[in-house]
Amino acid sequence: MPRGRYSLHDPHDHTPLAEEHFQCAPGPSGWRYVSRLTGPAGEHRGSVDLALDDLGRPLRLELHAGDWQVRGAALDGVTWVRTDPTGLHATEGNVRAHAFTGTSPAFLVATARLLRLTPSSAATRVRLVAFTDPVLAPRTVDQSWALVNSEAHATDNGPLTVDEYQVTALDTGEQHAVHIAGDIVLAAPGIELEDLESPPSRFD
Which domain of life is it from (predicted)? Predict the structure, then answer.
């Protein structure tokens, strides 16, 4: 069960945003990722709890940011309930999308798991619902994912395969690279892996 810490920063001006302390592992139903976020001064910023099924679809998502909360799952596309800080108002949303996304590295692993691309695959379009900080506002985004390179690296625990994806935002055409090994994001815009206590899990 990998445990570690990511640092999150603004991908444009590199302003530190948070540290995400996480653990994740494959399980009987698929894969689960849990984390807590702390701000630059060490204050609690929120949490992520994401469970996927064997096909990479979100069985359950629970996000907290400040006093805002989102709970969601794959149901008629994706469905979620967003609760305001007072706890008095909850709004439900539903979009014909494939999955969720957000600032957590968990969502990059989840999307890669959902698409299951190979280097010979054509670029694949995916529609996601993004929850944006700091109030978890939902926004539908369309992306294109392509696996441009898959390379095995020798380690003390055997070969480790690192996949390089090219992700394109279809509304702006902006492209960026995402490097993933198993269920760990090694590098992506705004994300740095600072600490890892055990090797990434391998998916079958």
Answer: Bacteria
Residue 3, judged by CB atoms within 10 A of its CB (0-12, 13-18, 19+), counts as middle
**Residues 6+ away with beta carbon under 8 Å from 34:** 22, 23, 24, 47, 48, 49, 50
Q: What's the one-letter identity of residue 117?
A: L
What tokens appear for 117 in the block?
Answer: 């691309």
Q: Which two tokens stand for residue 162?
A: 């690192």
Phi-psi region of 88 (alpha: psi -120 to 50; beta: other; left: phi over 0): alpha
The residue type at 22: F
Residue appearing with tokens 């957590």: 104
Gap between the Cα atoms of 88 and 151, Å rounded: 50
State the residue for tokens 């995402």: 178
